[in-house]
Amino acid sequence: MKSQILATGLLAAGVSAAATEKRACSATAEWPGFAGIKHAFVFGDSYSQTGFNTSLAAPSAANPLGNPSYPGWTSCNGPNWVDYLTVKHNASLLYTYNLAYGGATVDAALVKPYADTVLTLKDQVSGLFNASYAPRTAPAWTGADTIFAFWIGVNDVGNSYWNGADSTGPLNDKIVGVYEGLAKEIWAAGGRNFVWLSVPPVDRTPMLTAESADAQKLCKEDVADFNGKIAAMAKNATAWEGVNAWVVDANGVFTGAIEEPGKYASTAGLKNTTAYCEAYENGTDAQDTLIESCGVPANEYFWLNTLHPTYPIHDAVAETVADALVAGPNLGRKRSHVDWDSAREVNMQPAIVAPDITLYQKEFENGRTAGMRGLILRPTMPNMADIRWTTLQE
């Protein structure tokens, strides 16, 4: 059993520490809250790409995504989650540098993309980011005003799942090992706030539902394994100095909307969540284009083509990411709800530890904090705040 001491800070007498416990996990000093974030760097594949070119216009107040013009070149027949996070679900003016590239895998040496010209995650971080943005000059980002978001794995899974768990398990270990190493490169450059999105349910794409039940099962198992390793990687990152980490369950958002479109306001209008219409698969001039042979407009299909969804689910993903950022880090040391005022006094003789300061002990009996003990250094001088610690037993 391991004991940890969490300083709850200098609290005014009579104020409950519970009022300060808002996040599921502790944040480091590098997290200013979502409203304090000024820059976002995004890495990934076609689910995230907007066609940003590091050599062209940088993000600005007029176009927070820089180039091309909004919403960019996306795979969803409209704005994608990066667009929505930047201009709809943002909490501040957010300058977004989107280095994602369609078709990307994590490392071409492990899983080859569809073409040699595709910029893998390794290329995006070790190449584009390190060359253009690691120096922190343009923009002059800091660890405390920047988030780094990753959504990748669709192509790693899609290009390897059929080999079965005996092969994909060890392969995923290698892939996520590279993934973690790339995140650590960003940390070494000063990055401190990391957001990882889980791989969506590739097994439910039209590409896979056209295959056998066995193929769908293999794919589903591969996605689950990959996502488990993303979660473990993100947990590892919380040990790096100053890091705040989030894993956002994009897989769950997709699954929820496929099974119940009304779960999210942005997906409530979807009428077909299983198939796609070939007449729409390369995009349409208008988001609500209706071709009679398709039955319903393009934006009432969940899937645009065999692998990519339409824009409504991207809105839901962006909203979920924003909600997670507002709530604070969801990985790391757990914060417990500590209700000092309802705790009972433990049989302990008050001890004078310094002139005019007395040590008291309280034991908590409520909820998850039952059995925890708190120490209070209580100044006897007027207008002085208590200093309180909570001892957590794990």
UniProtKB/TrEMBL annotation:
Q: Which GO terms describe its molecular function?
A: hydrolase activity, acting on ester bonds
The record ties this protein, via InterPro entries, to:
GDSL (IPR001087), GDSL_Est/Lipase (IPR051058), SGNH_hydro_sf (IPR036514)
Q: Which UniProt keywords apply?
A: Hydrolase, Signal
Domain of life the protein comes from = Eukaryota
Signal peptide bounds: 1-17
According to UniProt, the name of this protein is Acetylesterase
**Record organism:** Colletotrichum gloeosporioides
